[in-house]
Amino acid sequence: xxxxxxxxGATVGFFLxxxxxxxxxGMLGNFLSGDKPEDNKRIFSSDQKTxxxxxxxxxxxxxxxxxxxxxxxxxxxxxxxxxxxxNFGAENxxxxxxxxxxxxxxxxxxxxxxxxxRSSSRYPFRLELIHLLFKLxxxxxVLVDEEIKTLHEISAHLGVYSIDFSRIASMFxxxxxxxxxxxxxxxxxRDKLDNAYDVLGIPKGSSKIDVKxxxxxxxxxxxxxxxxHLGEEFKxxxxxxxxxxxxxxxxxxxx
Length: 255
Prior knowledge:
The chain is mainly alpha-helical. The chain contains twelve helices and three strands; from the N terminus they run H-H-H-H-H-H-H-E-H-H-E-E-H-H-H. It has helices at residues 7-10, 18-31, 46-66, 74-88, 90-103, 110-119, 123-137, 145-157, 162-170, 193-200, 208-221, 232-253, and strands at residues 142-144, 179-180, 183-185. A three-stranded antiparallel beta sheet has the order 1-3-2. Strand 2 (179-180) and strand 3 form a beta hairpin. The radius of gyration is 19 Å and the shape is globular. 37% of the residues are buried.
């Protein structure tokens, strides 16, 4: 198989050092074995470079989350495949899925990989990673303790603040719901007022003034324009989170 001309093949060399290069180097070396070296020495804008780094990071962390509960679920694999096809096209998706398959059989130093991502990326970039990883984790309709622990570890290693992690988590499930055998139900009752306060990261029963203040702050922090440089597909992901924040605000203000 050749990565010539594709997203991953064209950007090999962006991670010339560190744990990501060590992890991907051998696999990409095999994939690129039929290409000429000069084919992979292209010049990209900083935005193109950032988008490609996001893709590498995403595929690696997808593998980490899928392996969290030691079971590779069909629903999770299909989520990744559908996401990659929708955002990168069928050809790139096919090759990235082969890379994912190889990563699922590898031991991944999560802390080292996340530290490299953290040192070379902006904060909004890392927030979008966490948001997408939650979407993957809940794709089968349930979260298990191992998945939550893994997501929390990734978030901490990426330098994401605890309040932001909790806020994103609250968009998918509520920490207060009952648990059975280490399984947490996904939050689906969108008319539940308590969850709206969790999404905004404010105490339940906060004054309308504090609610408005929190919403204004989050509107600036999570606005889709913050990740516009990553491309339309990532801006859409940020828009989804922004909509949930607006829905939480509206739910509180209507009561």
